[in-house]
Amino acid sequence: MRTKARILISLAAILPVAAFAVTTPATNFTRALPGTTTAADPTLAGTVIEDRIVPYSTLPGAPRPARGTVQVRTVRGADGRLNFYWRIVAHPSSRDVVHALEIFRFPRRVYDANWRIDGLGTVRPVLVTGHNTAAGWRMEFVFRPTIRPGQQSRFFFLRARVRETRPATIRVRFEHSRSAMLRAVAPIS
Q1: Which end of the chain lies in a sparser environment, N or C, as judged by fewer CB atoms within 10 Å?
Q2: What is the pLDDT of residues 100-114, one digit of tens each?
Q3: 19-to-5, 46, 71 alpha-carbon distances in Å
Q4: Residue 27 carries which DSSP code?
Q5: Model pLDDT, residue 19
Q6: CA 175: distance to chain centroid?
Q7: Is 3 inside a domain boundary?
């Protein structure tokens, strides 16, 4: 019996542990993201109400050109709340790495945030941040290690306590530059 108990404890120590979403405050913050699954957090399951592939690239004149796509997905959970998902796919010919996805025009409020263990991709965000800037409230998902050419992120998300959307923008941040603003949606204020 002791051998079986040691094996189970050893397996528990090396297998990823799914957690619920991390709650973000409506003030400046930085939160670590442990990852989660629909088995651990069934509120993530629901109906996809929008799913778009948005191309991105560095701005003209960037020292290291990069391009790829951001999958922008909105899911209505069984509870009626909206989950805003993103997934970044870096093109193999890119010459720069992706550090973060910046999110603009999301209302300054409390969200649930995390990334999906049970999905596509290999690179996960390690942090979500929110802070005031000269342009207003900005949140971002930060990747360490970065998303390298040919790699793709896991799905990551913000869950809002709302049921309707409005226009928003996102931007990919590289090591040496940023992309143009890209179209997305946000919860209504």
Answers
A1: N
A2: 999 998 999 999 999
A3: 23, 19, 23
A4: S
A5: 60
A6: 18
A7: no
Mean pLDDT by 10 residues, the chain (189 residues): 43 45 91 94 91 96 95 92 96 97 93 94 97 91 97 96 90 94 90
C-alpha closest to that of 152 among 93, 91, 74, 65: 91
Name the residue range of residue 127's domain: 17-187
- Whole-angstrom distance, CA of residue 136 vs CA of residue 152: 29
CA distance 115 to 37: 8
Length reported for the chain: 189
Rounded to whole angstroms, the maximal C-alpha distance in the chain is: 65
On whether residue 1 sits in a domain, the answer given is no
CATH code for the domain of 74: 2.60.40
Close Cβ partners of 40 (under 8 Å, ≥ 6 residues apart): 18, 19, 20
- How many CB atoms within 10 Å of residue 155? 23
Report which DSSP code applies to 41: -
Does 4 map to a domain? no
In angstroms, the CA 35 to CA 30 distance is: 15
* Structural domain contains residue 133: yes
User: How many CB atoms are located within 10 Å of the residue 109 CB?
Assistant: 15
pLDDT attached to residue 5:
41
Dihedrals phi, psi of 28, to nearest 5 degrees: -50, 135
